[in-house]
Amino acid sequence: MTIGEPTLVLSELVEAPPPHRWLAAIVEFCRRRPLGAVGAVIVVLNLAVALSAGALAPYDPLTTDYGAMLGSPGRAHWLGTDAFGRDVLSRIAYGSRTAMLVGFACAVLGATLGTVIGVTSAYFGGKVDLLVQRIMDVFLAFPLIILALAVVSILGNGIVNVIPAIAIPMIPRAALVTRSSALAIREMPYVDAARAAGFRHRRIILRHMLPNVMAPFLILLTAFLGQAILLEASLSFLGLGVAEPTPAWGLMLRGAAVQFAETAPWMAIFPGLAISLAVFGFNLFGDSLRDALDPRLRTP
Amino acid sequence: MPRQGGRLLALALVLASALAIVVAGEFSGPPADAQDTPRHGGELVFVVPSESPSYDAHQEETFGLIHPTAPHYNTLLRTDPTDSTGTKIIGDLAESWSVSKDGRTYTIKLRKGVKFHDGSEMTSRDVKASYDRIMNPPPGIHSIRQGEYVDVEALQTPDPYTVVFRLKWPSASFPSSLASPWNWIYKADILAKDQHWYEKNIMGTGPFLFVEHVRGSHWVGKKNPNYWDKGKPYLDGYRGIFIKDSAPQVAAIRGERAMIQFRGFSPSERDTLVQALGPKIRVQESPWNCLILVAINHEKKPFDDKRVRRALTLALDRYQGSQALSKIAIVKDVGGVQVPGTPFATPPAELEKLAGYSHDIQKSRAEARQLLREAGVPDGFSFVYKNRGVPMPYEPVGVWLIDQWRQIGLNVRQEVVEAAKIFPTLRAGDFEVACDFQCGYIVDPDLDLYKFQSKEVSFANYSRYTDKVLDDLYQKQARAADVEERKRYVREFEKRLLDEEVHYIYTLQWHRIVPHLAKVRGWTITPSHYLNQQLDTVWLAE
Amino acid sequence: MLRYVAKRVVLMVPTLVGVATLIFLLMRVVPGDIVELRFAAESTFVQKDMLDQERARLGLDQPLWRQFATWMGGLARLDLGTSMWTGAPITEEIGLRFALSLQLALMATAIAVALAVPLGVVAALRQDSWVDYAVRVFSIAGLATPSFWLGIVLILGLLIVFKWLPPMVYTPIWVSPVQNLAQLIWPALAVGYRYSAMATRMTRSAMLEVLNEDYIRTARAKGLWQKLILTRHALKNAMLPVLTVIALEFAFLMGGLVVTEQVFNLNGLGLLFVEAVAHRDYTLTQALVMLVATIFIVVNLLVDLAYAWLDPRIRFR
Questions:
Q1: CA–CA distance from A5 to each of A15, A193, B375 (Å)?
Q2: How remote is the C-alpha of C299 from its chain's centroid?
Q3: Helix-strand-coil percent breakdown of chain B, rounded to 5?
Q4: Mean pLDDT of chain A, nearest integer
Q5: Which of B177, B385, B174 is closest to B292 using CA atoms?
Q6: A162 close to A242: Cβ distance less than 8 angstroms
Q7: Most confident among A121-125, B270-274, C206-210 (mean pLDDT)
Q8: With contacts defined as CB-CB under 8 Å, which chain B residues touch A153?
Q9: Residue A183: is its pLDDT beyond 80?
Q10: Is C140 helix (H, G, I), strand (E, B) or coil?
């Protein structure tokens, strides 16, 4: 419930406006920001492939075929086969599932938790803010890869454990960014008015402050998506990510792919392309999103 | 079925002879031009994939110490650098040795006039001090191969150039223990003052003097002008560069910034180098005394049932695996408990009879399924295979194992365990089936079979079983007086370990591939990457 | 101003203590044992009491609080202790690699700035034109490429096309500048390209914000000459957030370039880090984390101070 003060357009979007508003906004976005549109298309494509991998993939990604090891791209295997004769195309398709899962889980976890922490800290201010800031500083000062390494070492390999390993370093970064936006909003009259009216803290935070940090939140989300996919690839490269024989893009770039980089380059090129394309798309979209949202962040 | 038996017999004969030819050819012997006159001079530059925490071979077990540091030292005996099986023992600091009739006394005559790098002479006192340290280390010293010398009763030095070992019982493998590449002879005076000195310092009698070591970067040695073996070493010096990742290692040799990497490369890396450098590259290959074992936890159901364990080994098509995996990984040879081609290796006819080594994989797998049914293991039974997180060759072998077990209806999930965690995991028995691994520094039944004794005897028995018959067989083969008798015991041990009880599973023997610049001469590959690294016989052509 | 500086410096202390506690606990929680790794990995003859002895020697059998107190005491005296793996003093271990990591970080930052500033400014001045699109695509491509991938491609490219390989051993720049640069320019390029992406975006958006200020728009309306002057002025104002990003990225570059170091075989802090963790070398890992955290916090502080100095509103709060 707004308090009669001109609020940001975005908060209206969050309050579920009629459908034609959404459609108009999307068309407007595509027209004005073609790069962002391209990015969005890539994102949607990735999601589509991830969801329908079972139907799309011509082979089972785990089936080995020792007769067709290291086969070059051809009619039977469009993108070739890997060191065990497994179909690269199928592994990439299923790999997108791992990538999207890890990417979205980490990004949503990291961005959401970070935003909640950042906004809450900004709202309460004073000692709470100081304490939370210090804790976030401690995690921020920690080298990202070491934190991820430590978490994986404790929990072990596998998708489920990689997600917290990547999400945890993201939380303080999100908190930092959203806190500065939240600080600006906190000084606004309508927040003061809400407090004067006696609304509880939780309500004010959830219904007034959070919707207004949607812009940085969305930007963080898209940035984290790309980062999470890359981090997963790096962790797999170091041997700390998802384990064989699970198909995952980062894992596919390890070991045999590097070994056969010259004789069987398709093993490394296609997963590398898949990663680059996905991260590229997410970042492009996120970039344009920031452009679209940025001017509105500056209040009159 | 018309003459199935006859066809099978012919096939078996062809395969056996093929195997024999392959095995014979596996040891690609010394390079053809070993007859050329060695040329003096030049600096050998080589790559070292791993770095050792200390300089003391008595307390370390990594080749990362041997490769850069062994050239500074000598041992009592050594393996003949021209022998490609790495089993022929000759003298290093020992001029000659003799064994008493009862096989319990070894009298060794030392060379005279051998000098340490600081000019002092090496005598039997130094040998005794070094071996006392190895066999009965003072507190604070971890002599990790101490257990090899339990058969030594006494070590005496009647005069400055004679050393006498008295054993509690005859041991045919004792010369191998004396030829251990880890038993560097240190200076007695230094050890008397400070037992830890050798952890951070170098003082030996070897063909090369220590120049410098920069952690994480390189190790430099230069020729010892007063080396006791006149005319050697041929090289002016050497430089070992530490490179951990294999891609830059290959790049280093390809870019001719390094000449050789003494451990081994993968088949694709060899192919890359051969393609890129053509006649400038020479490749030496050999079966390797390393392999991945599958430890089966006898304390976890249903693996306490030997039918289940037998099924696991029957499922593996080792021959197809060898063919396929040898293209992408450093595994290849199908063997028993000793590296094919060495004195105690399994003859092909007997190998066939062991569970999982038959050429008829359909039959083996049918038997496996039958055994699983009898043992009450349902189809689709799931368990976790814990694998070590090292790409080569653990990952490909892991993928292969899981795939093979799928063929008999087992649904295996792999869990990759980081190196620092795998040993505590194995030791604690916190697994159902896991990868274990053995890398012997010399091919010898005493060394290669020790691990498989009962868990009360062998700390490294991760399958956690007690088998007194096996222990007994080990002792019998260790003390056998006659070579043929010893072979019999080794065969019995093998049969019980791999076929009757299936306490452990042997996967495929690793395959050592060392491509190097053709100008490196005088180095012969053996099944052990710890042997023959003193570099005294190595020279550079052109 | 002095009060602000003092306050910030004092606030550094609890952060550092927090980092120290976190890494200490984290390492102890992670399963695995350095003693096992060192002595039991490949040997079949090892004895159990030998392992226990070694643990006692390393102080691993002490109660946790005492281990922590010993270490914190050492930190306070700036005594980092010795590495559990090699026994060498940690200052020595780190010292060997510090120069390389520092130089690489500086070179990569220089390349990033050299790329980011002109590209970002041009993209902002020509917003929504094809130049803008090209710059954005170029910089995002840098972000999207996995750095190890880029490294492998670079080295292969050099080998195959030029039949030349960079030197594999590090020579300090004062010993042989040619060798030194020949080795480090390639990883600096790979890393610099990636980091220029973030800086480019930052420059572009900062410039855009400033360009939309009223006084700039008026100047534009007035004519070219004034626009030039004010563009320069705009640039100066835009630089502050850009410098922030660059400074923070620099802090991340020290010890964070694990994969790059592996691919280019550089004896730097990143690989030392990974090795220390892999070996469960508690003392070395802890010391490295403290080093990197301190660098990060100090850089953070300097950036904040720069902001405070330039923006009186913050200073006088």
A1: 16, 10, 76
A2: 11
A3: 35, 20, 45
A4: 78
A5: B385
A6: yes
A7: B270-274
A8: 418, 420-421
A9: no
A10: helix
Nearest alpha-carbon partner for B514 in B84, B66, B24: B84
> Among the residues of chain A, which ranges form H helices?
9-14, 19-32, 34-51, 53-56, 88-124, 126-141, 144-155, 159-186, 189-196, 201-204, 210-212, 214-237, 249-252, 256-259, 266-297
B residues 316-355 near A, CB within 8 Å? 320, 323-324, 327-328
Six token digits for residue B363: 């039959």
Count CB atoms within 10 A of the CB of residue C76: 8
Cα C315 from Cα C317, distance rounded (Å) = 6
Tell which phi-psi region holds residue A136, choosing left (phi > 0), alpha (psi between -120 and 50) or beta.
Answer: alpha
This model of the complex carries an ipTM of 0.79
Cβ–Cβ contacts within 10 Å for residue C21, how many? 13
Both tokens of A264, joined, read 């069987």
Contact A157 B323 (CB under 8 A): no
Q: Which pLDDT score is estimated for A81?
A: 83
How confident is the model over C160-202, as pLDDT tens digits?
788 788 888 888 888 888 889 988 999 999 888 888 887 887 7
**How far apart (Å, rounded) are the C-alpha atoms in residues B366 and A296?**
71
Q: Crossing angle, helix C147-162 and helix A266-297, to 10 degrees?
A: 130
Residue A298: pLDDT above 50?
Answer: no
Average pLDDT, chain C: 81
Q: How far is CA A268 from the centre of its chain?
A: 23
B363 interfaces chain A, CB cutoff of 8 Å: no
Three-class DSSP category at B223? strand
Q: Are strands B43-48 and B260-261 parallel, antiparallel or unpaired?
A: parallel
Residue C112 main-chain phi, psi, to 5 deg: -60, -45
Tell me how far apart the alpha carbons of residues B292 and B436 are, in angstroms, rounded to a whole number.
6
Which residues are CB-neighbours of B212 under 8 A, at least 6 positions away? B218, B219, B220
- Dist CA C148 CA C263 (whole Å): 6
Two structure tokens written together for B208: 């090369």
Mean pLDDT of B150-169: 93
Beta bridge partners of B291: B438, B509
Query: pTM of the entire structure?
Result: 0.82
A179 backbone dihedrals φ, ψ, rounded to 5°: -60, -45
Structure tokens at A238: 């170091």
At residue A194 the predicted structure's pLDDT band, cuts being 50, 70 and 90, is confident
Reduced to 3 states (helix: H, G, I; strand: E, B; else coil), residue B247 is helix
The Cα–Cα gap between B146 and B22 comes to 37
Give the one of C31, C163, C263 whose C-beta lies nearest to B424's C-beta: C31
Kindly report the backbone phi and psi dihedral angles of residue C261, in degrees, each rounded to the nearest multiple of 5, phi listed first. -65, -35
For residues B168 and B177, give the distance between their C-alpha atoms in angstroms, rounded to a whole number: 15
Q: Which of A40-49, A192-201, B533-542 has the highest mean pLDDT?
A: B533-542
Listed in sequence order, the residues at least 6 apart from C313 whose beta carbon sits closer than 8 Å to its beta carbon are none
Dist CA B366 CA A257 (whole Å): 35
Interface test with C, best of B47, B215, B435 (most C CBs within 10 A): B215
Q: Do C256 and A145 touch (CB under 8 A)?
A: yes
**Integer angstrom CA distances of residue C37 from B200, C281, C288:** 20, 10, 21
Is the Cβ–Cβ distance between B199 and B178 less than 8 Å? Answer: no
Query: Taking CB atoms and an 8 Å cutoff, what residues of chain C touch A35?
Result: 133, 136-137
Residues 6+ apart with CB under 8 A from C199: C112, C113, C115, C116, C117, C120, C242, C245, C246, C249
Q: E strands of chain C, at which residues?
A: none
C-alpha A149, offset from chain centre: 19
Contact state of C30 with A238 under an 8 Å Cβ cutoff = no
Any idea what DSSP says for residue B502? -
DSSP letter, residue B497: I
